[in-house]
Amino acid sequence: xxxxxxxxxxxxxxxxxxxxxxxxxxxxxxxxxxxxxxxxxxxxxxxxxxxxxxxxxxxxxxxxxxxxxxxxxxxxxxxxxxxxxxxxxxxxxxxxxxxxxxxxxxxxxxxxxxxxxxxxxxxxxxxxxxxxxxxxxxxxxxxxxxxxxxxxxxxxxxxxxxxxxxxxxxxxxxxxxxxxxxxxxxxxxxxxxxxxxxxxxxxxxxxxxxxxxxxxxxxxxxxxxxxxxxxxxxxxxxxxxxxxxxxxxxxxxxxxxxxxxxxxxxxxxxxxxxxxxxxxxxxxxxxxxxxxxxxxxxxxxxxxxxxxxxxxxxxxxxxxxxxxxxxxx
Length: 329
What we know:
Helix content: 25-40%
CATH topology: TIM Barrel
Oligomer: single chain
CATH class: Alpha Beta
Shape: globular
């Protein structure tokens, strides 16, 4: 059996197992910590505003992810992450920069076959990976589409790019399927997560899910061109006035996970949508550097940083009404 055939068979077996375990949860939905218990196989939708099919806003080669995902050197420089942006969200942060998708649910319903075709088209364009943005609430159509895509020749690493508010029971079933986990760890404070995301149990749920992701992918592995092939990268967006909580996030990661993971500290916050009064400004250099200094003390193998601070005219907010939502495209 060739390596490619073995790879495909192994992935398909894992997907079949996951679908057997997870599909029954959709009729009384318990696929995320919200536990809405609606029948998503019928006409009901919960907080995520999603039924049995995925709704996709756009799929594109994304050049603004971490360098190990978008490409940085050698012949594969800037080939891009094959990114699929799903509409709907199970968390709905008041300040979400992708609010057109997460809150307004803007996108087109796609069949499993169409979703698989998006993946294969991105591979044909030279994508370095298949990057699933906001996959938590659409994990079942994703799994069904991956089953089709692997049968049709998909070979790229799969990136699970989530808000971190994931069910550990679901993440356990993704073993052998997800190559690179890319979750947020937004808060430790239940007061902040309640205020900004209506999820006082955010850290309680997210830290368990991230520990399971770490068990599955404990080390960020790069190929000889410094492109990630598997591993765990955790993102944290520093919020204005909340650097104390950011320090707690970094401390938890440094004390409970090994330095072999990637940590991406983001300074790109820009007030938008329903951001409350105290979030109506950018992050200061002092706020961001305080968090960077703490993270540096833990000697993470891969620490990804952004400019600090972003000026208002430099913000990275996408506009999904445009053919190319990102300014650098």
